[in-house]
């Protein structure tokens, strides 16, 4: 029997990564984001990464919503560092342009904070494997934006268990008007043995909408 978790992503902007480093100095601009500052990019990096608001350090564009989800390996948590060169339109309770960080993988996970103005939040650590980050801009008063780097460190709640060996890569891409997702695909397609722990993901691409005939 295959043990693990199955995640179904229908439409998301994701940013995932893997790392074992803990020092801010060890984080490199190796996130794979090209061009730098692309909005809502999903990346996977073994040594952490760096992401920025669009156009950073120049002014970010109006009316954007960028969502990033950072996922750490099992038994690790996330260290998130914001650069001191930081400027987001200030407002009361950050109701307009802002960064929102949540402690988990969803937009309804517990909120860590909402940030704007001239003072960078500098450092945030997750309580578990995930951080959900949203950057929102309205139609007025753009500013420099932000640059943030992330890496991973051992979760203190699991310090006596050590870090488990990496899980096998288990990802599927599916498309078409309909289909079936089932766990036997994992062993049939050689993604993992029946005795291995897994963390599998199915990515589903909907077919394009038909063009209307005039």
From TrEMBL:
SUPFAM superfamilies: Spermadhesin, CUB domain
Swiss-Prot/TrEMBL keywords: Disulfide bond, Repeat, Signal
Domain of life: Eukaryota
One Pfam family hit: CUB
A GO molecular-function annotation: ionotropic glutamate receptor binding
Residue span, CUB domain: 39-153
GO biological process, any: positive regulation of excitatory postsynaptic potential
GO cellular component terms, A-Z: postsynaptic density
Gene3D superfamilies: Spermadhesin, CUB domain
Signal peptide (from-to): 1-26
InterPro entries xref list: CUB_dom (IPR000859), Sperma_CUB_dom_sf (IPR035914)
Cysteine-cysteine disulfides: 39-66
PANTHER family associated with the record: NEUROPILIN AND TOLLOID-LIKE PROTEIN 1, OVOCHYMASE-RELATED
The protein's name: CUB domain-containing protein
Organism, scientific name: Alosa alosa (allis shad)
